[in-house]
Structures are given as structure tokens and as C-alpha cells.
Design brief:
Order of helices and strands: EEHEHHEEEEHHHHHHH
Distance between the termini: 37 Å
Strand content: 5-15%
Largest sheet: 7 strands, mixed
Radius of gyration: 19 Å
Length: about 325
């Protein structure tokens, strides 16, 4: 394992960076390395012992050697349950139609240090998982963005959450910069009282796109949550409203089928055991490649911009 001395692009802090970290994590995967994020960085505080970093990389590599085959098995299961062909699915999960890197951050005591606010760079922590977040660095007209992952304070790395879940986000369902920012500032935002797509406020558009990227990940990985829906959205009424709004935003893409399934299962999904989640995830997976173009935006796109960017085609075609 080779390291270099550098600075964190989103804070300027002096740091160690491990080189060729993607190759270190992917060496057991062979051709399946394509399911990993395109760019993976690993930074470590100078006080972190290198033997701890090496042990973490070994454990993460071992975990991914089981995670990726399980993800491929889910691809076959999704294909059997929907009209998404395996080739199309694999393209959606590995095509990397976005510009978000994945940064693993090894800190002395865990947790995610948040630098002082700055107009040109910074970190926005996840509203529900404070050791995860989105970091950015703006140089002129170019904004680099990272999905930023650390372990919880004073706890070991959680391989399922920190490596499995986060690697899926960075690979095919990146978290836009504006999502965590808006959801952090507007904890009471909901989709429940929206009368239709044209009534969506900017924070509600952010919430809609946030749920898309979360539902995509839990469907592909088979993650159940301790919520009233078993999904990353707790309120069954808001889940139904999300699908209803989506059907009107993107007619013909498959949300009408998802709306029927929501009613059939009473808005309660089991991502691991039930195939019902795949009817909800299929149109979302088709949307993500174009939604991912908003990943570096600091504010949510307007509804007009979303509609202009996404030309909903008949269900069964690939949006690329």
C-alpha cells in the first residue's frame, strides 16, 4: 500500500492519501469490478496508523467480494420480475453516467469532520447518517463532487452501511449535492399535501430525487429498513404520493404499474423477500442516468428543467 501527502480538496487539511485504492478494493472481483464506482479515493488523517488503514482495506475488499455477486444475483431477479433485460440493467448499474467520486475517509476517532462554511468548497453531512455526506470543490466553472464516507464516531466500520450501501450510491445512484443540503435545512418537508407535479416546491423536488436514489439502492441490494413501509420513506401516504406524482411527471415509464403494486401491498414492501419492490424500482432505475446530471448542483433543478432533461419514452426502452 502506497501513500502520498496531500490536502483534502474540500477543506485544505493536510492528509495522507492511499494511491490505487480502487485496484486494492477490486482485486478479488475480476470483470465484476465494473460494478464499483469509477473513481474511489481514500484519505486518512495523519494520526491514523497505516496498519489500521490496511486492515480496513482488507476487510472492505473481502466484503465487496461477497457484495458484488449478491448484487448480480439481484439483477437476475429484477429481470425475471420486470421487463428490464439483464443487459439493460447491467448498463444502468455500471454505465457510470455521472461525475461523483467515492471518498473513504479514515479519521482517528471516526465521524466526519465538517470544515467551516465556504462558498467554493465544503461538506454537507447526510441528514440521517452524519458520518456520510457529500463533499465538493469548485474551481472556476468546474465542480468536483465526492460521496464522502467515514465510520461512525468511536465505532468500527459498518461494512453493510459504509461499504455496501455507499458503494452502490456512488456506482449508479449518486446523491446530488443539493439533496442533503435541502433535507438538512428543511426537516419538515413532505410530499403528502402536493396536489400535483406543478405544485412541487424546490425542497419537495429535492426530496423526490432523494427518494429515487435511495429506493434504487435498497431495491438492488435488498435492504429492508425499520420504517412503516420497510423503505427509506417512513410514511405510507407519502410513498403512495411519490409514486402518484412520478406517474404524472413521467407518464408511460412504469409508475402506473408501481402505483397498482403500492395498493396491492398496502404500501408495505420487503426488499429482501418480496419481488414487489422491483416494480417500483424499475422506472426509477431508468430515470437515474439523466437525473444524475444534476449531481453537482447546489440547488434543486426546477420542474421545467427536470421535464426538459428527461424525455420519458415508452416503458421498456433505455434512457441514455
Amino acid at each position: 500500500m502506497r501513500t502520498i501527502k496531500t490536502t483534502l480538496p474540500w477543506s485544505g487539511e493536510a492528509i495522507l492519501q492511499v494511491t490505487s485504492v480502487r485496484e486494492l478494493l477490486a482485486h478479488r472481483l475480476g470483470p465484476d469490478e465494473r460494478f464499483l464506482p469509477r473513481i474511489i479515493d481514500l484519505f486518512a488523517e495523519n494520526s491514523v496508523r497505516l496498519c489500521e488503514v490496511e486492515r480496513f482495506l482488507h476487510d472492505a475488499s473481502s466484503y465487496l467480494a461477497e457484495e458484488i455477486p449478491a448484487r448480480k444475483a439481484r439483477v437476475r431477479r429484477i429481470s425475471r420480475s420486470t421487463d428490464l433485460a439483464i443487459d439493460e440493467l447491467e448498463h444502468l448499474l455500471t454505465g457510470r453516467q455521472h461525475c461523483q467520486k467515492w471518498a473513504l475517509f479514515c479519521t482517528q476517532s471516526g465521524g466526519l469532520p465538517i470544515p467551516e462554511a465556504c462558498e467554493s468548497r465544503g461538506v454537507v453531512p447526510c441528514s440521517s447518517m452524519r458520518n456520510h455526506g457529500v463533499a465538493w470543490d469548485k474551481q472556476g466553472n468546474l465542480t468536483e463532487i465526492w460521496l464522502l464516507t467515514a465510520r461512525k464516531p468511536n465505532q468500527p466500520w459498518d461494512m453493510d452501511s459504509d461499504i455496501g450501501h455507499e458503494s452502490a450510491h456512488a456506482a449508479f445512484a449518486p446523491v446530488p449535492l443539493f439533496v442533503d443540503a435541502d433535507l438538512t435545512r428543511n426537516g419538515d418537508v413532505s410530499l403528502v399535501d402536493v396536489d400535483g407535479p406543478d405544485d412541487l416546491a424546490p425542497q419537495q423536488i429535492a426530496r423526490l430525487l432523494y427518494f429515487y436514489c435511495e429506493i434504487a439502492v435498497v431495491a438492488v441490494r435488498g435492504e429492508g429498513r425499520s420504517t412503516n413501509t420497510r423503505l427509506p420513506i417512513d410514511d405510507p401516504e407519502e410513498l403512495y404520493q411519490l409514486v402518484w406524482i412520478s406517474d404524472r411527471l413521467f407518464p408511460g415509464l412504469g409508475f402506473a404499474r408501481a402505483l397498482y403494486v403500492c395498493g396491492r401491498v398496502n404500501n408495505y414492501f420487503d426488499p429482501q423477500e418480496s419481488d414487489a419492490i422491483f416494480d417500483l424500482a424499475a422506472p426509477i432505475l431508468r430515470l437515474l442516468p439523466k437525473l444524475n446530471t444534476f449531481v453537482a448542483a447546489k440547488s434543486p433543478p426546477t420542474l421545467r428543467v427536470v421535464r426538459d432533461r428527461i424525455k420519458a419514452s415508452p416503458f421498456g426502452s433505455v434512457l441514455i
